[in-house]
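Chapter summary example.
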Amino acid sequence: MREGDETPPLAEQFLAFSRTAARDGSPLYEEICAGIAGNDELLELVECSPADQRRPNLILAAVHFLLLAGADDDLGRHYDTVCEFRGLGPATAATGPVFAEFLVFCRSQRDPIAGLLATRATQTNEIGRCTALLPAFAAVARAHPDRPLGLVDLGASAGLNLVFDRYAYDYGDGRRPGDQGSPVHLTCELRGPAAPPLGLARVAARVGLDRRPIDPADEEGRRWLLACQWPGHLARFRRLRDALAVAIGGPGPPRVMTGDMVDDLAPVATGIPESAHLCLYHSWVAAYLTPARQRALVAAVEEVAARRPVSWIFAESPAETPGLPIPPPPGEAPERGATTLVLVQATGRALGAHRLADMHHHGSWLRWWGHDG
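The structure predicted for these 373 residues follows.
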């Protein structure tokens, strides 16, 4: 957890990421991150990235990106995603320490990796979180039944979560909202006694805001998004490829503008018609801001709310976002490491925060707390 506005040293971040990878079923990243934590050469390489992106995810994605692009190295044969993407057959188990191969690869590709670290940002665009966004949008729609929603996705990347209604959903309770003919199928386990609302909200406008937006029709952009996935998570990797295809087809890709989620929030919000209820949202984006910038985001939402009513939804880690208004869970304690889904109703600078749910960080389960707007 951050203390004040300080970010933990890189070595500590890699050790923590290694433990997370172990819990989430990625022994490859577990070993690699543990190795980087004790290797000054690679820690120095990571410092090529901007301060706000200096995290384990970025060098992992940079290496993955080069391997997906066809970098000729045996390291790629240990990545399930690379083997499938490049048609190399099943991934092979390492006969020795994988970190040693990772280090050799980074030395041979130092300049390309340094270039990616300096210019790219972590952009997972995790569409699995739409399983939490869909009921959150439904809760907002219930509270504002006379108006469709005007969605603004902060940190939208390629905007894949803006087209949440183009995906099929299954919550395991007989309710299956969304487009059941979609190639993207999202499943979510509901936990606890409360059932979330699952009606598809009416949407009149949708726009994303990102400092480095990605065009889903651009081959290199698609590859970067895929590289931000974890090598052992083939199902998520395939799902993302399908979502990119969905975004390109049909009505076309969503509109994502270049800008900062704090500094450029007001002008983007102004572009949403007054006939729509303004709904801001983001997921695992504020975690990349310092606590001071998180507090600035709160102030920016207050500024917008001074001019029109706003619903603000976010799915973030409480440990990573001390500057956001996150209420405690009602009753029982949340599951360890859970992401929190919060709805803030903002009118005239007054913010009312409600903890809608706790959830898996990729949306595979959801515990709804019962508030519906």
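To summarize the output: The chain has a mean pLDDT of 93.
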